[in-house]
């Protein structure tokens, strides 16, 4: 008796198909990863700005004494969203309001300058948020 064998059906993926999928996934990853990192940094900056505004409100409401130089302000208050950033307080002088500023030392290894300022909140009789 003579048996007829059926032709083998093709199963699985070819090498070309796998390489195309790997190339597509790699392209998508090169687009998505930098954007994701940018979103995380902007979220940290926004959290820091909001915490600065809340801290200034709390300082004004409780009538905190701001006559000193403010060097110990970061130690006296908890800055959870601004950890690693440079937080500076500048007391009111003449017509200038007092300011509380955060600089992006968290995101840079160098000394902060005005271009790295995350946020500055100033207050006199009322609170004014420049960037918040």
From TrEMBL:
Membrane is among the record's keywords: yes
Disordered: annotated segments: 109-132
Superkingdom: Bacteria
Keyword line: Membrane, Methylation, Transmembrane, Transmembrane helix
GO cellular component: membrane
Subcellular location: Membrane
Transmembrane segments: 12-33
Membrane topology value: Single-pass membrane protein
SUPFAM superfamilies on file: Pili subunits
Keyword Magnesium among UniProt keywords: no
NCBIfam families: IV_pilin_GFxxxE
Protein name according to UniProt: Prepilin-type N-terminal cleavage/methylation domain-containing protein
Top-level taxonomy: Bacteria, Pseudomonadati, Pseudomonadota, Gammaproteobacteria, Oceanospirillales
């Amino acid at each position: 008796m003579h048996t007829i064998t059926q032709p083998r059906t093709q199963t699985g993926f070819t090498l070309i198909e796998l390489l195309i999928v790997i190339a597509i996934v790699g392209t998508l990853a090169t687009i998505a990863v930098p954007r994701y990192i940018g979103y995380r940094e902007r979220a940290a900056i926004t959290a820091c700005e909001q915490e600065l505004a809340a801290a200034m409100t709390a300082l004004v409401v409780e009538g905190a004494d701001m006559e000193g130089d403010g060097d110990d302000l970061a130690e006296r208050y908890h800055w959870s969203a601004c950890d690693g950033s440079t937080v500076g307080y500048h007391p009111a002088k003449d017509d200038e309001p007092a300011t509380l500023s955060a600089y992006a030392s968290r995101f840079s290894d160098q000394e902060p300058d005005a271009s790295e300022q995350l946020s500055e909140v100033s207050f006199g009789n009322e609170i004014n948020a420049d960037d918040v």
